[in-house]
Amino acid sequence: MVVTASLIVVVVVVAPVPFVAISPGSVVGVDDLVQVAERPSDDVGGSFYLTTVKLAPVTPLEAVQGWLRPEVDVVGAGRFSPGHLTSAELRQLNLDQMDASKQQALAVALEQLGHDAVSGDGAEVVDVVSGAPADGVLDSGDLIVGVDGTSVTSHYDVLRLLAERRPHRDVRIDVETAGGEGRRTTALTLAPDGDDPEGARLGAMLRTRHPRFDLPVDVDITTEHIGGPSAGLAFALAVLDALTEGDLTGGRRVAATGTIGLDGSVGPVGGVSQKAVAADHHEIDLFLVPRPELLQASRVAGEGVRVEPVDTLDDALRILTDGSASTLVPTSW
To answer: pLDDT for 10-29, tens place per residue?
Structure first.
């Protein structure tokens, strides 16, 4: 009877359970991962970093130990390994997400510098702001294919054309309607941009439908065995740093986490508490995080780490340049 009880205790202590421990991982320098063909030598003091977490299956004893450590989260294994995927398939999924993240980061960075890197079938309306010029004129699912007679193939084309307009001026929009009724041309009066009174806004959230990439600059991002989409913001910033004059970091050690969308939006990634601890351990000066995850990061970041929330790539650039992101000067060589 004693032997049986002992065996039961041993099994309970060491048998794997369907839980995974998330703990602080590494901080990886991104600058060395971004390779620009014929890039001139650049000796600067600061660097960009991506952050990672460690994932490990745990026994019941390790799960209890993890729950007692504030820097460790213990969650169900299904959160990271859907039951229909094998470990090899899950690994490939993470690598595919990383590849997509790198491509989008390159495209967004190049568009930021004025390159025509993204094209598609037009600018699709995702949502319309209530009371904005587009309200009642455009509907979700509409496809903008022209602005004042100029054809557009991406949402970046629309943004570039609107940047040339002024508020309170009329603009003609060529639209393929969501309902399939065909193409129509509609007119609306642009409103002032809240952040820039001299700028004009449409009042619609746009995205490129069926995006295609044409990267005019030979840039490569080497990630080897790193997977997942969470380094998108870090990659976009490192690419911009490599392709512009000066040091975008301002001589600081800057870590960033967050997905990057083709519209420049920064999305949440999870594991931010563990990444903040890793940033502290590696003496990071500034940690840029998706706004919804600010509180999680701030609670555990050390006093030496300045944590800043961002919603978009533009937000990150404003923080890095003290509001002068528009003065980024592309390097020519």
So the answer is: 444 444 557 777 888 888 88
Q: Which of 186, 212, 238 is the last residue of a domain?
A: 212
Q: What angle do CA 103, 106, 110 make, to 5 degrees?
A: 140
Is there a single domain that holds both residue 101 and residue 235?
Answer: yes
What is the pLDDT at residue 83? 54
Query: Quick one: which of 62, 28, 67, 60 has its CA closest to 47?
Result: 28
Q: What is the CATH number of the domain that holds 241?
A: 3.30.230.10
d(CA 290, CA 312): 8
Beta strand extents in the chain (DSSP E only): 19-29, 34-36, 47-57, 73-76, 118-119, 123-128, 143-147, 150-151, 170-176, 183-189, 191-192, 200-201, 204-208, 212-213, 219-221, 253-256, 259-260, 266-267, 286-290, 306-310
Q: How far apart are CA 315 and CA 224, in angstroms?
A: 29
Residue type at 312? T
pLDDT digits (tens, 9 = 90+) for 313-333: 999 999 998 876 556 656 543
CA distance 243 to 326: 14
Among 195, 212, 229, the domain-final residue is 212
Tokens of 210: 């069926």
Output the six-digit token pair for 282: 């590696």
